[in-house]
Amino acid sequence: LAGLKITPQDVSNIRKLASQRSAFDILSRSMAPSIYGFSEIKKSLVLLLLGGAEKNLSSGTHLRGDINLLMVGDPSTAKSQLLRFVLKTAPLAISTTGRGSSGVGLTAAVSSDPDTGERHLEAGAMVLADRGVVCIDEFDKMSDEDRVAIHEVMEQQTVTIAKAGIHASLNARCSVVAAANPLYGSYDRSKKPHENIALPDSLLSRFDLLFIVLDHVSPDNDRAVADHVLRAHQLLPNGSEFDQFHDRSSSAEPNVSEDGSSPVYERMAARLYNSTDNDTQGASRNHRVLNVEFVKKYIQYAKSRVKPELNTDAAEYIARKYSELRGLQSQLTLPITARSLETLIRLATSHAKLRLSATVEKKDAAVAVGILKVSLGAQTDLQDEADESKKRKRADRRREKEALTEQDKDSEKSPEDAMEIEAPKRAGKQPRLKKPKDDSETEEEDDEVVGSSKTPPVRSRRSKSRGESAEELAQKEQSAEEVEEEDENEASSAEKVTDLDEAIEIVKRELSNLMGRHTPVCSKKALAEVVLKTLETPLSSEALFEEVLRTLTDREMLVITDDQIFRV
């Protein structure tokens, strides 16, 4: 493959590293050490390079052992740099881009000889990368016709050609590592993951792992990234370090030994890639990074020499976890199919290869389930974030509507009414409306005033005008209260869910929260209490709740007996 010479000293170092409990962490930390974070993606790339166990059954069925991985996310999140490091590390790797590739360029093409006119096959990138890795950058830029051409390669690992009298089947047993940008250029967190990823489910299901890479804005994380990058830039072009890195006695190792074996650890990498200043010798030892040549030899040795077999405990554990993931399929973006079950087997087998173990044990299966859950859990968090964004938008619309209603009520008030209400407010008192007087009371008041030395006509007219304005104000306030009550009723009705499909998703989500992983039963009364009263946007009525339960029962997803709900 790459012509690597593995010496007995290399084998001894490989076995010594494989016996350590932290071997997986050390290898993942050595994948693209200049890139900060992405520990789970780096672990997945280590397992991808090691690969699972390929099986050819007697019936002719081929079960692939290669792992496919897709990264989708914001620009400037080091997706392309991770691909470049895979190209540098894998024994055999071929790079291509979505814009510069075609379907025949990836698979195979039929061409004719210019001298003789004879037709012959020319292998594409995936055929040339047989037993290796194909890295495809800008995967979203490929046309639909070209993406369809790689469906067969990603699952059956063959390229079938039937053109110009040539019928042939070529092997393309390779892993695919692809990087793509979302549909809108950058990831829109207000939309669900499947709305951001413009790829069909038939293609997504062929990827064992799908990671959504986001550019999170955090002062602590940004500071850590800046410190990590600046430490790497402190290395001068000629290879010498600054004064604080001149002490090489603690971590220095020779570049090449006398027998041709590679050094295990990189010189000074621990200090460059460790985020704390003034490292002690022990802290540097905990952050050591493997030499790239040694990583290549480790991967080649573990991949070619170890063929692990699945034991009973690991098989039962994988089956149980697979059934649990199938029960949570409504909350996940990536479809959970039988291919996901094979993904768990491949990841567990790859981890057993990393340990140089001949048996796939339960702890290997646990690592595989953890990585798959991280891949799916990130999408679940984003889906919850999109739901929260929609709730915030609905609340903002309600507040805008209430503000417009208040402005309409203020514009309906007359200037005299505003003055009469504003005066008691300035005095620190509540406004009090006067009761309108009858005509007889007004006439008696006028007679009394005429007998005095004051000017009665003006006062009489004022009293009458004030009585009329108070009556009009009372009527306006009453009508305003009625309008406000109607608006509150409309707002409360707008907050409630009336659509059946949306109500079904809410009930399914709350069922999963109430039931948990190991108890597929809950109380119908408790579920009704949650979805009708507790939620911020509850269901509109009990009739809708009952209709949702009938629908889920008809779909054979639930079984209801008295007050108990069982998940099928």
Q: Which SSEs are present, and which pair or pack?
A:
Blueprint: H1 8-18, H2 23-29, H3 39-50, E1 55-56, E2 62-63, E3 69-73, H4 79-89, E4 93-97, H5 103-106, E5 108-112, E6 119-123, H6 125-128, E7 133-137, H7 144-149, H8 151-155, E8 158-163, E9 166-171, E10 175-180, H9 193-196, H10 201-204, E11 209-213, H11 219-232, H12 269-273, H13 281-286, H14 292-305, E12 309-310, H15 312-327, H16 338-354, E13 359-360, H17 362-412, H18 415-426, H19 439-450, H20 456-495, H21 500-515, E14 521-523, H22 524-534, H23 542-554, E15 558-561, E16 564-567
Parallel strand pairs: 3-10, 3-11, 4-7, 7-10, 12-13
Antiparallel strand pairs: 1-2, 5-6, 8-9, 14-16, 15-16
Characterization of this structure:
With 568 residues, the chain is an alpha/beta fold. The protein is built from 23 helices and 16 strands. The protein has a 5-stranded parallel sheet with strand order 4-7-10-3-11. A 3-stranded antiparallel sheet has the order 14-16-15. β8 (158-163) and β9 (166-171) form a beta hairpin. The longest helix is centred in the last third of the chain and has 51 residues, at 362-412. The chain starts with 7 loop residues before the first helix and ends with a strand.
